[in-house]
Specification:
Elements lengths: L7 H7 L5 E2 L15 H5 L5 E5 L5 E8 L4 E8 L4 E6 L5 E7 L4 E8 L2 E10 L6 E4 L4 E4 L8 E7 L7 E6 L24 E6 L4 E7 L5 E8 L2 E6 L8 E2 L7 E6 L5 E6 L7 E6 L10 E2 L10 E5 L2 E8 L3 E5 L5 H10 L4 E7 L5 E8 L2 E9 L4 E7 L12 E7 L5 E7 L8 E7 L13 H8 L3 E6 L8 H5 L5 H17 L3 E11 L1 H12 L6 E5 L5 H11 L10 H8 L6 H7 L12 E6 L8 H12 L4 E6 L9 H18 L2
Parallel strand pairs: 1-28, 31-32, 31-33, 33-34, 34-35, 35-36
Antiparallel strand pairs: 2-3, 3-4, 4-5, 6-7, 7-8, 8-9, 10-11, 11-12, 12-13, 14-15, 15-16, 16-17, 18-19, 19-20, 20-21, 22-23, 23-24, 25-26, 26-27, 27-28, 29-30, 30-32
Helix pairs in contact: 8-9
Length: 656
């Protein structure tokens, strides 16, 4: 991959023999460190930290207030002090981006729906300015601090005409209500919005902005197919790009207007990164491929002067690939200064002298660290969980196993410190199913390990990031996913890890579905089951999705996609009976704990209430915990602690 010569300062540092970790882990001395239930379940102190273009500040999302609303904290990177913080009662920051050296632009939401507009907060002012007000979801497409504007995408509103527009970078100007009642003028000195572009026919999945800050490519579903529409400028008509959108993903634009970086299988089992020439339609030689992991599902790119110099992606833990070979020595020095961790350089100042590092491991919660090349030092900005005693946290082992039908899967096993097996064990199942677990720090795992339980996590088929055979071809094989989990649990018994008389299965969302599958389809394997926000009746799920998906978007959980992959319930009743554990409650022998947020808009609480009815019908021992003012997650700390205390009581009662 071509790249320009990096700054002399950067290259000279590579020749050094060491980087000095001047103040790692010296912050937050005033916080009492105890691995209590409450501390283990606290949300991270900060996350999604981003550096200002000049490298003077860092902004991050942070839980605040009595109910833990997601607010904003701005750090002064010269002394790591908090320069500014703000939160909004009942509302959460959804996205944040630096749009100048001193201004952070962000949107506010509640229950995942856009409700209060786009705001801008300056490091030197006490109040945030409202820029755009409407009821739509806004995505920031091109937060460009070096430009007088950035592109935003207005979508999914009740009264909003969907499209994109330029958002000015200043703090003065008219507040816009982007309701689509009239076109936003191409130029308007009194308006924060300009250059409105309406969405193309069909369903838009993404707008791709090039390095000249022009909207060049649209990913959309049109004429019953996924396609890429392209144009070089706003004066041209859109044409279809001769690139199969079902086979290739657009990663980002290169340093030439004709260069794209794309990812796809290209006849292999895992996705590779390739250059693509827009003019000729030619796909170039392979740049990178991991033999086991699909890097593109989690890739985040590091750029310098429009050149891609490296990217991070997820293996069993975060990994980084440097495409500029001269920077490999820098990574080695960072790793030498911070041993035993995954150290990911992910953000940089415009002059490339200051860099943000996120450092973590299986038993070290994340830490944000500043690498200053002029000072040749690493300085801790803050830890994400400074209240925990890291030395008391449990380690996680990575393992692989072959399924009975020949797939190679990955899992993680966490053993409580100081305990000898066989252990009481919790099989903790991730949601999705199109997501995954990692061996990196996991608060839920550490909570259960602190209570003396071994924790098994399995990336069953359909989990993202494991190649075509595991992640793509089996994406809707729900019963086979259950089989994968079952086989992994039995392996822990065979190897003397798990006590066969004390095994629980627990999960949220799709993991909650898997927990009830385990109880119904393997009635003699588990001691008890805990389900949180689960789906148990797929026919009912498809019906509810038909009402929700009025915009026709073909997401993996949309009505259209579920019918395409699972079939029509009226025509495939046997299949839906087979994959829906609510139809098999008569087989359940073990106690069940049912948890659900009452405001869940992803999976209706109706699913859990239907399960409760069936459990009562068949006399299954059970208890429920339906939580007020929570959605598809229990976020408020007090409610979160209460929920896990109830879970712990349930486990201790039935796993003696």
């Amino acid at each position: 991959m071509p790249h320009k010569l990096l700054p002399t300062l950067f290259l000279s540092l590579v020749a050094l023999t060491a980087i000095v970790p001047s103040s790692i882990a010296k912050k937050n001395k005033a916080i009492k460190q105890e691995n209590t239930i409450e501390n283990l379940l606290r949300h991270p102190k900060v996350y999604n930290m981003k550096m200002s273009p000049d490298g003077k500040y860092a902004a991050s999302v942070a839980p605040m207030g009595d109910k833990g609303e997601r607010g904003i904290v701005i750090f002064d990177l010269n002394d790591m002090s908090v320069k500014r913080s703000a939160s909004w009662r009942g509302l959460d920051i959804d996205e944040l981006h630096w749009t100048s050296n001193e201004d952070v632009t962000f949107s506010l939401s509640k229950w995942g729906a856009f409700v209060e507009g786009v705001y801008r907060l300056s490091v030197n002012e006490k109040t945030a300015k409202l820029l755009v007000k409407n009821d739509a979801v806004v995505r920031f497409l091109d937060p460009a601090p070096d430009q007088p504007f950035s592109w935003i995408w207005i979508r999914n509103g009740n009264k909003v005409k969907k499209g994109i527009a330029k958002l000015g970078s200043g703090r003065s100007g008219k507040v816009n209500k982007f309701d689509g009642s009239s076109e936003v003028p191409a130029t308007n000195q009194n308006s924060m919005l300009s250059n409105r572009i309406n969405e193309l026919p069909g369903q838009t999945y993404w707008w791709h902005i090039d390095n000249d800050h022009e909207p060049r490519i649209v990913t959309r579903f049109h004429n019953d197919r996924l396609e890429y529409s392209h144009r070089y400028s706003q004066d041209e008509d859109w044409t279809t790009l001769p690139l199969e959108a079902e086979e290739w993903d657009i990663e980002l634009f290169g340093n030439d207007k004709n260069l794209l970086y794309i990812s796809g299988y290209n006849g292999e089992n895992t996705k590779g990164l390739y250059p693509y020439n827009i003019d000729t339609g030619e796909i170039g030689e392979l740049i990178f491929r991991d033999e086991f992991y699909d890097f593109s599902d989690s890739a985040r790119y590091l750029r310098h002067e429009n050149n891609v110099i490296g990217f991070r992606y997820m293996k069993d833990k975060p990994a980084f690939v440097w495409l500029a070979p001269e920077l490999l020595s820098l990574q080695e020095m960072i790793d030498g200064a911070l041993p035993g961790r995954a150290n990911i350089l992910y953000d940089s100042s415009a002059d490339f002298n200051r860099h943000m590092i996120y450092s973590s491991s299986d038993n070290i919660p994340g830490e944000y660290i500043l690498l200053d090349l002029k000072e040749k030092k690493l300085n801790s900005i803050t830890k994400t969980a400074p209240w925990l005693v890291e030395e008391e946290l449990a380690s996680t082992q990575v393992f692989h196993f072959d399924t009975s039908d020949g797939l190679k899967l990955e899992g993680y096993l966490t053993i409580p410190n100081g305990k000898q097996g066989p252990h009481p064990m919790i099989c903790l199942v991730h949601g999705g199913p199109w997501s995954r677990d990692t061996s990196d720090y996991d608060d839920e795992t550490q909570f259960f390990a602190s209570q003396g339980y071994a924790v098994l996590r399995v990336n069953y088929r359909g989990s993202t990031g494991y190649g075509k055979a595991v992640s793509q071809e089996n994406a809707y094989e729900f019963r086979k996913m259950h089989n994968d989990i079952t086989e992994a649990v039995k392996l822990t018994i065979d190897h003397g890890v798990a006590d066969p008389d004390r095994i629980a299965i627990m999960g949220a969302s799709f993991g909650g579905y898997a927990a009830i599958c385990g109880a119904a389809f393997e009635p003699d394997l588990y001691t008890c089951a805990i389900t949180n926000m689960g789906v148990f009746d797929w026919e009912e799920m498809i019906k509810s999705r038909k009402q929700q998906d009025r915009n026709g978007m073909r997401t993996r959980y949309s009505h259209h996609k579920l019918v395409e992959k699972l079939g029509n319930p009226k025509e495939s009743s046997d299949k839906f009976h087979d994959i829906s554990p609510i139809k098999h409650i008569d087989k359940v022998k073990i106690p069940i704990f049912v948890i659900h947020g009452k405001e869940d808009s992803n999976v209706s609480i109706k699913q859990s209430k239907m399960l409760k009815t069936e459990l009562e019908k068949f006399g299954v021992v059970h208890q429920t915990h339906f939580v007020n003012d929570e959605g598809h997650n229990i976020f408020e700390l007090k409610k979160r602690v209460k929920t896990y205390q109830l879970v712990l009581e349930f486990l201790n009662k039935h796993m003696k």
